[in-house]
Amino acid sequence: MADCLKCGKKIGFFNNGSDGQCSECVHSTMVAAREDGKGLYEEALLKEEARNAEIEAILLTTETSPNLNITKRLKIVVSSKESSLDLKLATKQEELFFDLKEKCHALGGNAVVGVSMNIVETYAATFGVGEFKKFALIAYGTAVVVEVV
Questions:
Q1: Are 110 and 104 in contact (CB under 8 A)?
Q2: CATH number of 59-146
Q3: What global pTM score does this model have?
């Protein structure tokens, strides 16, 4: 468990806030920003950062671990991304996993279990001595609610 950088409170894996702060400190920062006369734009940015931190905290696992106490299975979530160069596959993979987490968050889950990823060549063409390929990355898993201990 980590400690909140602002108040020192213990932060669990699933309920961490933004920038190493607990959700209460993130909320108080937003309130203070509003009271200090900061505009709605800054407040919206703080909310978006807090939302992204919640999404990043969602657990992705390739198996259903026996130590995860799944209390509710929500839905199978699927994400896909196109990539034209195999050099971009690592970046696209991160976008793909964030998209899975985002879909899980929208359903009210805090984990995606049984994640599987496939790379499919969707297009290939030869131009002179070079070859052009296009790929689709597809990931899917089950969005669940895991009991936080």
A1: yes
A2: 3.30.110.70
A3: 0.63
Interval 110-139: pLDDT, tens: 999 999 988 888 887 888 777 777 888 899
pLDDT, residue 139, reads 93
DSSP H helical ranges for the chain: 23-35, 40-56, 89-107
What one-character DSSP code corresponds to residue 13? Answer: S
Six-digit token string for 121: 């060549």
Tokens of 66: 């026996």
* Residue linked to tokens 């936080």: 148
Q: Where in the chain is the domain with CATH 3.30.110.70?
A: 59-146
Supply 123's token pair: 């297009």
Q: β-pairing, 70-83 with 130-146?
A: antiparallel
The residues that bridge with 135 in the sheet, in sequence order, are 83, 121
